[in-house]
Give the backbone structure.
Amino acid sequence: MAIANQLKALLKSHVEGDDARFYSIAMQLAAHEAKIGHGKLAEELRDLVDQAKARRGLPPKEQDKTVPIGRPRGELAGLLHASFPKNRLGEMVLDDHMDYQLKRIIREQRQASRLLAHGLTPRRKLLLVGPPGTGKTMTASVLAGELGLPLFQVRLDGLITKYMGETAAKLRQVFDSTDRTRGVYFFDEFDAIGSQRGLENDVGEVRRILNSFLQMIEQDDSHSIIVAATNHPEILDHALFRRFDDILNYDLPDDARIAELLKTRLRGSAQKGTSWKRLSGQAQGLSYAEIVRACDEVLKEAVIEQKEQISESDIRRAIEERSNAKTRFTGKRTGKQ
């Protein structure tokens, strides 16, 4: 009945020329679709509203007054940060195995109804393991973007408290949300929750949090995707690993991946004859994120200096600066010696 009333109100606002009300009701319909799991349709409706506002020539401030779909309310607002990524898999530089794993997850999610009809469950509980800057956070954004789902990043500062039992209660709120609102739920720095029971600095509350998480993820039968990421798999409790449908291992890029990333970011601006192979050797040991930052630095400098093209030496200098900064911080040399 609510949908019928909204449709009537939508038509009435259109007839009366009340654009503000028309857009508001359209976003309410989009929010309803998101709530019942139709994330792709919800995003398409939201995009259509944005496009309509732009065509009507509304000022940017008015265009930005769209109602975010699935934004956490009440206490959840302090536990989840919602965003609506448009990232796609093609934006990532991946080795063949990782590319296959991510495409398989996306394919299974898109064919979820068919799999469920045959008594099979699509992959949706994922553990991402690897050094910082290797693409774990980007993966969560890409999964959300490819599947047309909101991305909910779990805010550890709001989740973990010093009061006994409170963290487990808040964790329950997060898992209740996975059932109410379909999306990609991202636990970054997951070792804060999943460290081994029995470590020297372990306290009873840490064990209770981990036990609560183990129980909740085991019992979770929602249609949301749960993604946990860690830079320190060695301290995760072993009981966690069997709770995940897939474990994705991220590594620092090799020479081929570095060269591909540099070309992707700089090819349109770099001088002809730039040797990506030479540059990839200089960038060895840097993460994907660090290489992207080096590329952005050289692009910014070119804009400021009004250079039409970027030289190989410009790129090398930006890479060396990033490598030296990492060496000072970690004490480990980067690049081919």
Observations:
- The two ends are 70 Å apart (CA to CA).
